[in-house]
Specification:
The complex is a heterodimer of chains A (307) and B (536). With 307 residues, chain A is α+β, with helices and mostly antiparallel strands. Chain A folds into 2 domains: 119 residues, Roll (Ubiquitin-like (UB roll)), CATH 3.10.20.740; 145 residues, Alpha-Beta Plaits (2-Layer Sandwich). Chain A has 8 helices and 13 strands. In chain A, helix 2 crosses helix 3. Chain A is globular, with a radius of gyration of 21 Å. About 7% of the residues of chain A have low confidence. Chain B is built from 19 helices and 21 strands. In chain B, the strands form 6 sheets. Chain B has a 6-stranded mixed sheet with strand order 17-19-18-21-16-20. In chain B, strands 3-2-1-5-6 form a 5-stranded parallel sheet, with helices on both faces. Chain B has 3 domains: 171 residues, Dimethylsulfoxide Reductase, domain 2, CATH 3.40.228.10; 106 residues, Rossmann fold (3-Layer(aba) Sandwich); 111 residues, Barwin-like endoglucanases, CATH 2.40.40. Chain B has 536 residues and is of the alpha/beta class. Classes of the chains: A alpha+beta (307), B alpha/beta (536). At the A-B interface, strand 11, strand 12 and helix 8 of A face helix 2 and strand 13 of B.
Chain lengths: 307, 536
């Protein structure tokens, strides 16, 4: 049977979002329909170039007729669906997700959009604002669950892993959203160097047998860094600048160009500060890369600044 | 191919094709992001064959790996063709409608029975048969290759052998079916597009065609020599016999990258005058009379490059170049002025617009459109044209709008550097994931997965030679010897050795390689060297 790249024109479906009737192509997710209608939603574990895994629950919406809240990122729309993105129940649930994450993980480096959602829901119910606890107490409490398991759960404060010159892993910032696992695995790189290991409180992103990264199957494409929403995975160059107090986004420029290595033609976004490349990403909507690069494209820029 | 020097397909086609053949390509390491598309194709159900002397990281992905002996590609492709023909699986309708010379081709492959091919290639006849049947019977198939096909003394014949297979089966000129030479450098396609070939003007227009050349002469106001120039290998021959006395090298490092590099260095040393324009003081630049420091063309200047899917994309300036380094266009224009030509200063966009006015296949690619579309694939003749996703769709038009495409029968000729009792091991070279060419660029960053150059041997071969892993051994070819550490690699067979080309300062592999080259393309036979390995 011959395949063809031309699809039939998508039929449009009528749905209701927060009381307004909108149309969206059949097969869209609720999130895509919302975005198409200008109703942006918060996300953490979702990214356009990855398969939705529904772990973070921060994009949940209320659908009439559905007992539970549904994740907008993965639920396809159906005709005449009535969706509420800002009901009391939705706000409460989203706020709880952010609260629980923030109580166990350092969320200081989430992007501006996520930050503004967090603030929005906190303002939404200010009476609970005093619920945060000092981190030391948390660690102690968690330890008490693990008398026979001395391994600290990966979701609490722990040393930053610096194992090479290219990137760092700071799992005190990890929310276990699985994005890095997907990018390392079937959604892009297909290397499968990392996975979620352990159960319950001990769940953590880890390499095979928990070996250091240079000894693992990792090929240093950095696609895990490219998708990390919390700064848990970071360019060493960015980490060092932040540690020195010199990371300054206001003075940075981002320029899109083409990689200087093989002939595939991957677009690179060069983040430059003080005439130095400090980070390399690729546009999510670029047909060639879908936002993913290899080690040379992501880290092989240093030759132009060995001046 | 068929008059246009570019791959026929787009990357997205490999995501939905039925059959993928990687022939002499380790795309997993050499073209990693193309391999993302390929892996998507496999997840969508495509079957994959890899044909490679080494069991590479790409071969680990394949449904079937054909571990071919180095330099026997034409024997294999001719046997595949014969098997397709005798099984009655040739695409007779396509052959009759769109091709010529089939009978002579069929006669030329008739001696290549599965048995004979098995003897010559080392690939079991059953595997050859399976490949032939799968390729012929697939609805769509992508046949991809890289330097394993082209770095041979008969590079062009190797490519023609693969094109013949596509013509035999009709796997060209349709969405999902095509011929895909993966380009090794970010703008090697663009260099050809721009006429950096001895017989072409920009847009693959024949230099020796008076009308086409006249168009350029009228625009540039100068006479252009009316005979084709020399390709790289002929240039070195001309330098060797004194016909060329001065050389201007831009962004290339022949003192480390050429085959039989001792000869290359001797020739460069004998020049009256050597100019090198580069972003670094390379080994070649160290030999130069004049060095012109250039800006890095991917991050310190504006312009365009062309990818393996014929996509022209913008490069942009993100950094100020260091010191006195200057844009290539500025340097060349300044030199032209010193030579007495009145070249007006040109921005990269102005130079590009001039090119568009002279090269029909680039006509519609304004900077504005390249921005808006995220690059455009040639040919793109005018500003209403969307660019061309796959080439040669005309082969399927009725009536055929051009002359049918001829089959080119090709003969198998073994590698020039023959194995003998004294040189019993076949050395082949290639790339690693984290490194690139002679390391001028990739040597600049600290890769956690980099090895620093070794001779890779099958463990049983190393043991037979009395070597231990990590021990330095002497590798010798008919041209020279080098001492290198030995690494055991169970993905190699006895009789086959592998080295990378990335660390010439430590491991000068091209002292060993042979400069036998393809008379049609000028490419040297980097992939097939006869060596011996001795304990020191």
């Amino acid at each position: 049977m011959s395949k063809t790249h031309l699809e039939l024109p998508s039929s449009l479906i009528e749905i209701e979002i927060d009381g307004s009737v909108v149309t969206a192509p059949k097969g869209s997710t609720i999130l895509e329909a919302c975005r198409g209608a200008g109703a942006e939603q918060p996300t953490l574990c979702y990214l356009e170039n990855l398969t939705p895994v529904n772990t973070c629950r921060v994009c949940v919406v209320e659908v009439v007729g559905s007992r539970a809240l549904v994740p907008a990122c993965s639920r396809p729309i159906e005709p005449n669906m009535e969706i509420s993105t800002d009901s009391e129940r939705v706000r409460h649930s989203r706020r709880m997700v952010f609260d629980l994450l923030e109580s166990s993980v350092d969320l200081s480096l989430v992007d501006d959009s996520t930050r503004s959602w967090m603030e929005r829901y906190r303002i939404d119910s200010p009476s609970d604002d005093d619920s945060t606890e000092p981190s030391g107490e948390r660690v102690d409490r968690v330890k008490s669950y693990h008398v026979s398991h001395p391994v600290l759960p990966a979701t609490v404060a722990q040393p930053v892993k610096i194992e090479d010159d290219l990137y760092i892993r700071d799992y005190a910032k990890c929310i276990l959203c699985y994005k890095c696992v997907e990018a390392c695995g079937p959604d892009a790189q297909n290397t499968f160097a990392i996975a979620v290991g352990g159960r319950g409180f001990e769940s953590r992103i880890t390499t095979e047998f928990d070996v250091v990264l240079p000894d693992s199957a990792c090929v240093y494409c950095g696609n895990c860094i490219g998708v990390c929403p919390t700064g848990a995975l970071m360019f060493k160059s960015e980490f060092d600048l932040r540690a020195a107090g010199r990371w300054d986004e206001s003075s940075q420029t981002v320029t899109t160009t083409v990689c200087s290595y093989c002939g595939v033609g991957c677009n690179l976004e060069l983040t430059v500060q003080d005439n130095e490349i400090v980070k390399v990403t690729s546009p999510l909507d670029h047909d060639v890369t879908s936002g993913h690069l290899c080690i040379k494209g992501r880290f092989g820029y240093q030759h132009v600044q060995n001046r | 191919m068929f008059g246009a020097g570019g791959g026929t397909s787009s990357y997205e086609e490999i995501e939905t094709t039925d059959l993928i053949v990687l022939w002499g390509s380790n795309a997993r390491e050499a073209h990693p992001i193309f391999f993302h598309h390929l892996a998507r194709g496999m997840r969508n159900g495509a079957k994959m064959y890899t044909i490679d002397p080494r069991r590479t990281t790409s071969a680990e992905w394949a449904d079937t790996w054909l571990g071919i002996d180095v330099g026997s590609d034409i024997a294999l492709s001719n046997a595949v063709a014969r098997e397709i023909i005798v099984s009655g699986f040739a695409n007779d309708g396509f052959i009759a409608h769109s091709t010529s010379g089939f009978d002579a081709y069929a006669a030329s492959v008739d001696e290549w029975t599965l048995e004979r091919a098995e003897q010559v290639t080392g690939v079991p006849g059953t595997a050859i048969k399976e490949l032939a049947h799968d390729y012929a019977l697939a609805d769509t198939a992508q046949l991809c290759w890289t330097l394993g096909i082209t770095e041979h003394h008969n590079a062009t014949d190797n490519v023609l052998a693969l094109i013949n297979l596509a013509l035999l089966t009709g796997h060209v000129g349709r969405y999902g079916s095509g011929l895909v030479p993966l380009r090794g450098q970010n703008n090697v396609q663009g260099g050809g597009d721009m006429g950096a070939l001895p017989n072409k003007l920009p847009g693959f227009q024949d230099l020796e065609d008076d009308e086409l050349r006249g168009k350029f002469e009228a625009t540039w106001g100068v006479d252009i020599p009316d005979k084709s120039g020399l390709h790289l290998s002929l240039m070195f021959e001309a330098m060797e016999c004194g016909d060329i006395k001065a050389l201007y090298v831009i962004g290339e490092n022949p003192a480390q990258s050429e085959a039989d590099v001792s000869r290359t260095r001797r020739i460069l040393d004998g020049l009256d005058f050597l100019v090198v324009q580069d972003i670094f003081l390379t080994k070649t630049a160290e030999m130069a009379d004049v060095v012109l420091p250039a800006s890095a063309s991917w991050a310190e200047t504006e312009g365009t490059v062309t990818s393996s899917e014929r996509r022209v994309q913008r490069v942009r300036k993100a950094l100020d170049p260091p010191g006195s380094a200057r844009d290539d266009i500025d340097i060349l224009s300044d030199i032209a002025r010193r030579l007495g030509h009145n070249w007006a200063p040109q921005t990269p966009e102005e130079a590009w617009d001039e090119l568009r006015s002279l090269s029909p296949m680039h006509g519609g690619m304004s900077y504005r459109r390249l921005e808006d579309h995220g690059g455009l694939q040639w040919p793109c003749p005018d500003e209403d044209h969307p660019g061309t996703q796959f080439l040669h769709g005309w082969l399927w038009e009725n009536p055929l709008p051009r002359d049918p495409v001829p089959f080119f029968p090709v003969e198998w000729v073994p590698p020039v550097d023959e194995l003998s009792d004294h040189y019993p091991i076949r050395l082949t070279t290639g790339r690693r994931l984290d490194s690139y060419n002679t390391g001028v660029q990739s040597g600049g960053y600290r890769s956690p997965i980099r090895d620093t150059g070794a001779l890779e041997l099958a463990p049983e071969e190393g043991t037979k030679l009395g070597l231990e892993e990590g021990e330095r051994a002497r590798v010798s070819s008919r041209r020279g010897s080098i001492d290198v550490p030995v690494l055991f690699n169970k993905n190699l067979r006895p009789g086959l050795a592998f080295m990378t080309l990335h660390f010439p300062d430590d491991v000068d592999v091209n002292v060993l390689t042979i400069d036998a080259w393809d008379p049609k393309s000028g490419t040297a036979e980097f992939k097939a060297t006869a060596v011996r390995v001795d304990k020191i």
